[in-house]
Each structure stands twice: as C-alpha cells, then as structure tokens.
Amino acid sequence: HLSIRRQRQMCIRDRNNTDDYTRVLSQINSMTTFKEASSFVENNIKPDYNNWDDKEKYADRFLLIIEKRFN
Predict the structure, then answer these.
(1) SS3 (DSSP) at 67
(2) Which 8-state DSSP code applies to residue 65?
(3) Contacts of 43 (CB under 8 A, 6+ apart)
(4) Mean pLDDT of the region 6-10
(5) What is the mean pLDDT of the chain?
(6) Is the pLDDT of residue 15 over 90?
(7) Dmax of the chain from CA atoms?
(8) Which residues of 46-70 are buried (b: 16+ CB within 10 A; e: fewer)?
(9) Is 70 exceeded by the pLDDT of residue 5?
(10) Closest to 37 (Cα-Cα) out of 2, 4, 11
(11) Would you say 37 and 28 are in contact if contact means Cβ atoms under 8 Å apart?
(12) Which residues are within 8 A (CB) of 55 and not within 5 positions of it... i.e. 6 or more apart?
C-alpha cells in the first residue's frame, strides 16, 4: 500500500476532491502491478481531469511515486 507519507507527497492531490483522491488511492492499492496502475491512471483518471493539461510535471511525479510503490 501507499504509505501515508507517500500519499501526502502526491502533488496532484486536490484538497477539494478528497473523496476522489481517496477512491483513486484505494483502487491503485488494490492493483498488483505498475502496468495495471498506470493504465488505470491513463485511461480512467486523467480523462476525468482534463488529461492533466498544463500539469505534466505533477502527473509524471505522481506516476513515479506509484511506480515506486510497486518496486
């Protein structure tokens, strides 16, 4: 699971969308591979948030943190 410290470090967290954030982390934590998690983010999360336009730096950092969770 993503630790609380890692969860707090995730820079794309929008405090106004705490329920969404919690839901996404829960779903990612239920996955078994980075490939599965990154596909979920690319296909299900990014489209819901305007594909994170102008937030590429944050998106890359978010995926890096997720990748570390699976290594």
Answers:
(1) helix
(2) H
(3) none
(4) 54
(5) 81
(6) no
(7) 30
(8) eeeeeebeebeeebeebbebbeebe
(9) no
(10) 2
(11) yes
(12) 12
Do 4 and 63 contact (CB within 8 A), yes or no?
no
Would you give the distance in Å from CA 42 to the centre of its chain? 10
Amino acid at 8: R
DSSP for 14-59, please give it.
-GGGHHHHHHHHHHHHT-S-HHHHHHHIIIIIGGGGGGGTT-HHHH
> CB under 8 Å to 14, separation ≥6 — which residues?
20, 21
In the block, tokens 């590429």 appear at: 56
CA distances 38 to 15, 31, 33, 58, 65, Å, are: 22, 10, 9, 14, 11
